[in-house]
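REQUEST FORM: STRUCTURE PREDICTION
Request ID: SP-0412
Submitted by: Lab K.M.
Chain count: 1
Length (residues): 481
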Amino acid sequence: MTETLAPPQDGPAAPKRLFIKTYGCQMNVYDSERMADVLRPLGYATTDTAEGADFVILNTCHIREKAAEKVYSELGKLRELKDARARNSTTPMIIAVAGCVAQAEGEEIMRRQPAVDLVVGPQAYHQLPELLTRTARARGERIGADFAPVDKFDALPAARGVDGPTAFLTVQEGCDKFCTFCVVPYTRGAEWSRPVAAILAEARRLSDQGVREVTLLGQNVNAYDGEGADGAPSTLARLAYALADIPGIDRIRYTTSHPNDMSDDLIAAHGELEALMPWLHLPVQAGSDSILRAMNRKHGRQKYFDLIDRVRAARPDIALSGDFIVGFPGETDADFEQTMDLVRRVGYASAFSFMYSPRPGTPAATMGAQVPEAVARERLHALQALLWEQQTAFNAAMTGRTMDVLLEKKGRHGAQAIGRSPWLQSVHVDDADHLIGRIVPVEIEHGQQNSLKGRQTETDRPQEARRRASSGRAQESIHGA
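STATUS: Completed
RESULT:
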């Protein structure tokens, strides 16, 4: 098997095929990209299908409903492909399970599905080359699931494979909040922030590769407190100012945030820093104070309303996104109506909503008064109908407006290009594929439930760098980062 890990000495080997299936959040998307980067020096090139792949990785998420069951179902299909490969080829298919399900159930995965060669937790995927080599030699450990994020980031290759003008950039990992429904503190570990210098260095490399927009990632990204240039902890706002000072980085977003970590300087940055896009994902999960207490959210509905008022005062055109869980243990009809009331009062441009499902090992899984599935499903449908109504209205209100759109990729029709508005909406523009990678003014012809349709109003306009703040306070924040 060892010949599959290195090219022969007398010439380059044909690229080996790597297929990564990514479940869940943007953090996993970033992790999948970095796994591909780690494996590229070993001769692996990514492919779009598991059929014929030499190495298959399932990058899993433990948040979504029945996450483990979906992984085992997929592993069953992969085992058939692996067995067929063994019958018809001398080169084996290697299967790995990565991510949060791997962290939570590593030993169980290896026991239940012998076809799995490697189990790699979210803080250990930098060990993939070593684990892969050990597995190929049929010795050593097959599980890497330790928590050492600083080791992980130090070990990752500096070069990243990026495709297009946008990129994710992880700045913070882990969670100390311990919401009673969530497994993240157990699968991703404690909150940890990367140093400012490391993030800026990665962002500069991304800019050199043509990236115009970065989305800063973290389980609680607005809890960011990485070491700044002066050795003191930075804040997410100060980091954003420093990133905006990098030539070529014209747009900055961040996700996912916690209401308890919306600091004064971050709220102010939304009004002062032009590069910071007018879009905020701020999950509340429920609108009932009693349910929020049961969830251990450590904030109430009024605090959430107050935060929204302050953010909108700083940036009146900001669009809000959120997360909601319905059917949490003990949720009554009155509790659910409080959630509906919160949604009506806030008004969301987009949102994610889920029916509660127990996660083994979390406090909520053993709570009494579990809500019947039929009741929870009915509530979910009602909530989603309201959220869809709000999203559709938000998009329709864009009709007739002209906005800057970052064109990201080709569309399905002719010379069509698809980009993103400042409010993260998908925008379809005809006859614009030659402008991919640019920020162009687009007049919106009509808004739909999931996207906008527009036409470019100028074909060649000088691009102004969106990285200057309009106040002395902003400049002080940059220098302090």
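NOTES: The longest helix spans residues 373-396.
Reviewed by: T.R.
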